[in-house]
Amino acid sequence: MPSPHSSRCPFGPPPEYTEAAATAPVTRARMADGESCWLATGYTEVRTILSDHRFSADARHPAFPFLLPGRRELVAANPTFLRLDDPEHARLRRMVTGDFLVKRVAALRPDIQKVVDDALDAMTEGRSEADLVADFALPVPSLVICLLLGVPYGDRARFQGLSRVLLSNNAALEEVTAASDELRDYLTELAATKREHPEDDIISRLAVRDDLTPREVAATGVLLLVAGHETTANMIALSTALLIDDPEQIAKLADPAMVPGAVEELMRVLSIIDNGLPRVATEDVELGGVLIRAGEGVIAMLSTANRDETVFGGPGHRPVDEVDLGRDSRRHLAFGFGVHQCLGQPLARAELQIALATLFRRLPGLRLTVPREELAFRTESLIFGMRSLPVAW
Ligand code: HEM
Description:
The protein is α+β, with helices and mostly antiparallel strands. The chain has one domain: CATH 1.10.630.10. 49% of the residues lie in helices and 10% in strands. It is built from 16 helices and 12 strands. A 5-stranded mixed sheet has the order 1-2-8-5-3, with helices on both faces. It has a 3-stranded antiparallel sheet with strand order 4-12-9. A two-stranded antiparallel sheet has the order 6-7. A hairpin with a 5-residue loop joins β1 and β2 (36-40). α5 (102-124) runs parallel beside α16. The longest helix is centred in the middle third of the chain and has 30 residues, at 214-243. It is globular. 45% of the residues are buried. It binds protoporphyrin IX containing FE (HEM). The site of protoporphyrin IX containing FE (HEM) has 23 residues, from α11 and α16. Protoporphyrin IX containing FE (HEM) binds next to α11 and α16.
C-alpha cells in the first residue's frame, strides 16, 4: 500500500486510496510486507468492519494484517486491549472507562484551560516566533495525560521519543523492540512504586488492583500514554497549519457555540490515523460486492470513509476534501467505530476545543514563517502529524 500523504495535498489521503475508493468500496491491496489484504474505503463498509463481530482486532490471530512489517511477534507478546477482542478487551477497557467519561472530562476543563494558557504564556513571553509543535501542540496533551496517569512530566523527553519510535514505519525492528521494552519497563516500575504509595491517578488505581497482572497494568499504561499525547498533539498542529491562512474559518472559532462542531470537522478532514485500522475476518462476509473469506486481513481506511460525498457533502458547503467548520461532521469515523471506538475521545475533544479556540483568540495575527511548501509533515508514522510548525504573531 502506498505511504499515506505522498499526495500533492499533504492533508488528504494519497491518490491511490482515493482512486481505489472511486473504483469500489472494497478492493484488493498489498501490504508493505507483501501480504495481500482487503482495503475498505467506503463509509458504510468501514463502519461495518469496525462494528461487526465477524471482524477481529486480535493481533495474535495468525492472519492479522500488520501495517508495519515485522511487528507480529512484538505486538503479540505485548497485547494491549486495542488489539484484543471481547471478553478480554472489555475486561481491560472497563478498568479505565470511568476516567474518560464525558462527565469526568467536563470537570477537567478548567485544568485543561490552565495548561493551555500556561503553555501560551511560556511560548509568547518575550518572543514573537516559536515552533508551535515543540512549544504548544506537544506540551498541552503530554501534560494533561501525565496529570491523569500520574506519570512525571519531567520524563516527557523519554516517553515522547520512545512513542515516536514505536509508531514509526521506518525504524529498525531492533530499535522498535528496544523502545517497546523500555516503555513497558518504565511503566512497570512506576506502577510498582505506586502500588506501594498510591496517589490520586490512573496508574495508582490500576496498580493496586489484584485482578490485573503487572504486565496488564504496564500494557494499559503504555497504551494510554502513547495514545494520549501523540494523537492530540498532531491534531493541534495540523489543525493550526490547515486554518492559519483561512480567516473565514478562524472567525468561526471565535463563536463558542461553533467550536465543538468545528473540532469534529477538523477530525474528519484530517483523519490522522491515516494508515487505516487493521482487522481479520473470522467468518466469510459479503461486503461491498466482494466475498471476504474467513482468515483474510482487512484494512478499514478512515480517511476515504470520512470524505464520502453522500454522508458529508451537500449544498452550501465547501467540497468534502476541504475544511468547512460549519459542516455537520458528527458522523465521522476518525475516532473509529464499534467496541474499539476511541476511549479518549471526550478528552481529545476537550483538549482540541480549548487549545484551538484559545490559540486563535490570543494570537489573532498568527502566521507561518516559512512558505507552506516547506512545512515538515510526519509521514513516517502510523499517526499523521507535523515535525515542526514555525509561526510568528
Ligand atoms: C485526536 C486524537 C485522537 C484520535 C484521532 C484517536 C483515534 C483513535 C482511533 C481511530 C481508535 C480506534 C482504533 C481501532 O479501532 O483499531 C482509538 C482507540 C483508542 N484511543 Fe484514541 N484517538 C485520539 C486520542 C486519544 C486520547 C487523548 C486517548 C487517551 C488516553 C486515547 C486512547 C485510546 C484508547 C485507549 C484506544 C483503544 C480503545 C479500545 O480498543 O477499546 N485516544 N483512538
